[in-house]
TrEMBL record:
This is Xylan 1,4-beta-xylosidase. It comes from Spirosoma fluviale. Coiled coil: none annotated. Residues 40-541 form the Glycosyl hydrolases family 39 N-terminal catalytic domain. Gene3D superfamilies: Glycosidases (3.20.20.80), Glycosyl hydrolase domain, family 39 (2.60.40.1500). The active site is at E215 (proton donor). The keyword Signal applies. Residues 1-26 form the signal peptide. Keywords: Glycosidase, Hydrolase, Signal. One of its GO terms (biological process) is carbohydrate metabolic process. Belongs to the glycosyl hydrolase 39 family. SUPFAM superfamilies: (Trans)glycosidases, Glycosyl hydrolase domain.
């Protein structure tokens, strides 16, 4: 049962807003000197290549949430925020079960066997999941896993029960084991791909990504590294036999900073390049894209949440370094299959105070700062970053703002989703932002953001518009005075331009603050829900304003709160 009083106390502890700390913080803010103005120069004449929609990728553990009420609502909103198709990655698409959703669990019953051991294929639930995506113009990252009960070498126990208190954390049950028959597994994969082509058409399925498993370097895979490699060979062969033009990849290892992950990742890559194929006997295995994960590591320090953006960027950079070390593979698309502030979406703040960042603006400012640096890291390593999956969705029938890593709660969008709306509004050609600011990608990667704040920007343009996303991020979630910001824009044609200013902070685009002002109701009225839905949308901070342009330049001045994000769009004739 949801213990509201207990959880409220945990929130106070995690956020550092007990009575005495609140008074001390307010007093220190009153005594703080006014911050210096941060000047950000954006030069529209200096192009830095395409601003690829690496943010238009999402994923989650529980596939059966896909077609539930709030799941469909959120997928519709996600699909609308992007000009390009959004890719969606989910677990458990081959897990045996009745299709009922639960935390960290999902099933489709795609594969069973009759009394004689003959395969029985049932694509009803898998199709229901993929239909929900495709009806909205979205694309699956079709994750081939996990092991059906009838194929598992260790089938019992099979169904796990996730306990958010971590008293029962062993979720790695029968579905995590290798197959007892690799030929039957291969035929299952072949039949799935053939069915998909028959149902959705070859052109549609060619636009998907097919991948094997999830995090096989930890107990998500109960086999050895070599057994995973063997499974990959059988899986890739089956996919390519069913559809030679299908895109197949892996290995979706955890953060490459860890020694175990690096060892697994490199063994896989060596096999792809020069190993003996378990199916064909030839050298190597087919691969069309490469995947790995990257996570930060928040903790509670002195009564407040402290993030660790640098750790996530070091994960990413190490993954890029490993890929770049293989000349024949370094130009393949890379998908960061999970790219998040930490590792457990279903770990609410009830039992994990460090996750108290998730409901408010710290999650949104972190996301803005993180994605901007992913572009820089890929460019510095000379690799082809195609996408970075935000592993966050929604959790049906859970208490309001429980502190899961999700994009919406009970059908109401949280502030972080509005960052993705901002990304979706940005044109596709990246332009230069001056390098004289406190942080660049190297410093954030190496030090995280523990000294001065990271007040910085990402900018892009097209023929008749430009957009500048500006954030005021710090790893430590403590209140400070708002920061003055001055944006100098260069390279605007004409003598006038129209500016729209969108904002995410405590006042704008923030359903969580609106909910708290209502008294944090766990049973909001229909009118309150309507108000929360409106508060969860991206809002303009001011009315659109016409600004004068002189010699191609204009200056935009404003203040930006800590953990706030602004998007300024500029249009001209």
């Amino acid at each position: 049962m949801y213990q509201r009083k207990r959880n409220a106390l945990l929130k106070l502890t995690a956020l550092g807003i007990g009575v005495f700390s609140s008074l001390a913080t307010a007093d220190s803010m009153a005594q703080s000197p006014t911050p210096k103005t941060t000047s950000i120069n954006v030069d529209l004449t200096k192009e830095k290549g395409p601003l690829k929609p690496i943010w238009a990728w999402f994923g989650y553990d529980e596939p059966n949430y896909t077609y539930m009420k709030d799941g469909k609502k959120l997928l519709t909103e996600i699909s609308k925020l992007s000009k390009v198709p959004v890719y969606v990655r989910v677990h458990s698409l081959l897990v045996t079960g009745d299709g009922k959703a639960a935390l960290k669990w999902g099933s489709t019953n795609a594969y069973t066997e009759d009394a004689n051991g003959k395969p029985v294929y049932n694509w009803t639930i898998v199709d229901k999941i993929f239909d929900t995506f495709i009806e909205r113009g979205m694309k699956p990252i079709a994750q081939i896993g996990f092991m059906p009960e009838a194929l598992s070498t260790h089938p019992q126990p099979y169904r796990h029960q996730w306990d958010p208190s971590h008293k029962n954390y062993d979720i790695f049950t029968g579905w995590a084991y290798p197959p007892k028959d690799y030929e039957k597994w291969s035929e299952l994969v072949y039949q799935w791909v053939k069915h998909s082509v028959a149902k959705y058409g070859q052109k549609e399925v060619e636009s998907w990504y097919w991948e094997l498993w999830n995090e096989p370097d930890i107990p998500y895979w109960k086999g050895t590294t070599e057994e995973y490699i063997k499974l990959y060979d059988y899986t890739a062969d089956a996919v390519k036999r069913a559809l030679p033009t299908a895109r197949m990849g892996g290995p979706e290892v955890t953060g490459p900073l860890s020694e175990n992950s690096q060892k697994f990742f490199k063994a896989f890559m060596e096999h792809i390049v020069s190993g003996k194929n378990y199916v064909t006997g030839k050298t190597g295995a087919p691969i069309d894209f490469i995947t790995f994960h990257a996570k930060g590591a928040p903790k509670v320090v002195d009564g407040h949440v402290q993030m660790n953006l640098g750790k996530q960027l070091r994960d990413i950079d190490k993954g890029f370094e490993i890929v770049a070390s293989y000349p024949t593979l370094k130009n393949l698309p890379i998908i960061i299959g999970e790219s998040d502030p930490e590792g457990c979406a279903a770990c609410s703040e009830d039992f994990n105070p460090q996750n108290a960042y998730r409901n408010g603006t710290m999650y949104s400012s972190y996301t803005a700062a993180a994605y901007a640096r992913k572009y820089d890291l890929a460019q510095s390593r000379g690799v082809n970053l195609a996408g970075a999956v935000t592993w966050a969705f929604e959790f049906e029938d859970q208490p309001w703002f429980r502190g899961f890593r999700d994009l919406a709660t009970n059908g109401v969008d949280k502030p972080v989703l509005n960052v993705f709306r901002m990304f979706g509004m940005m044109p596709t050609t990246r332009v230069e932002v001056n390098s004289g600011l406190a942080y660049d990608y190297n410093r954030v990667r190496d030090e995280s953001v523990r000294a001065e704040p990271d007040i910085n920007a990402l900018a892009s343009k097209d023929a008749k518009s430009a957009a500048v996303m500006v954030w005021n991020y710090h790893d430590d979630n403590v209140p400070v005075p708002d920061a003055p910001v001055s944006i100098q824009l260069k390279g605007i044609p004409g003598k006038k331009a129209l500016v729209h200013h969108y904002r995410i902070d405590k006042e704008f685009s923030n359903s969580y603050e609106a909910w708290k002002k209502m008294g944090s109701p766990q049973k909001p009225t229909a009118q309150q829900i309507s108000e929360l839905e409106k508060a969860g949308q991206l809002k303009e901070m001011t009315a659109p304003k016409s600004v004068a342009v002189s010699s191609g330049e204009t200056t935009l001045n404003f203040t930006l709160p800590r953990q706030g994000v602004s998007l300024l769009t500029v249009t001209w004739n």
